[in-house]
Amino acid sequence: MRHLLLAALAAASLAFSPVQAGEAKPFATAKTIDLLTLLKPPPANDSAQTRTELGEVLTIQVTRTPDMEAAAQADAVENVWRFANVMGPNFKAESLPVFSAFFDRVVETEGAVVDPAKDSWKRPRPHQYSPLVKPVVKISNSGAYPSGHTTVGTLMGIVLSNMVPEKRAEIMARAWAYGENRIIGGIHFRADVEAGRIAGSVIAARIMEQPEFQSEFAAAKAELRKVMGL
């Protein structure tokens, strides 16, 4: 039985090899999850809410510490390995090929669903709205609403916490910080991040209903829990 299990895991590792990451197929697209009908539009550029949100960004800009800036810069990367600080030393891509390839698909799903909504709403980012804003993360000029980083952070957090419910609180706190770091970094407004959290939750709920997702989730979960000794 043990030999059969090892053989199955080896086969799965080949099927979900990390070298296929660039070809990862999303579990959903904007055609199946239309954020334009699920989210309210972003605040108008000349609204009191946008002015308040700009004030928050500018206040953070003069109060953030070097450590806060470093955390925001580190979280500019969109992958599940940003959760390593709560998952432990065994949480490494080289040890988790099936898990890694599965989350490549999860990450691709965010872009496939969120990017069309960003392109439609075209909300300016803080630095586009005001020259006073000086982001400390990589500049992006795509639409700000909803925040893609926050969406994928929330989505990854929900999926990962379903694999390791023992660490749910820590995982979701990390996902929350992932979104906050987009405001700290000066690249998103508060409404962008709040909409990203809703979007990530909606996407997670929708894709978890799919048999294809459920099958790959089960294989990735089994590998993760085995490597982590759970």
TrEMBL record:
| Domain Phosphatidic acid phosphatase type 2/haloperoxidase as annotated: residue spans | 97-208
Q: Which residues form the signal peptide?
A: 1-21
Keyword Signal in the entry? The reply is yes
Which UniProt keywords are given for this protein, alphabetically ordered? Signal
Molecular function via GO: acid phosphatase activity
A cellular component term from Gene Ontology for this protein is:
outer membrane-bounded periplasmic space
Q: Which Pfam families match?
A: PAP2
SMART domains per the record?
acidPPc (SM00014)
Q: Does the keyword Protein transport apply?
A: no
Q: What is this protein called?
A: Phosphatase
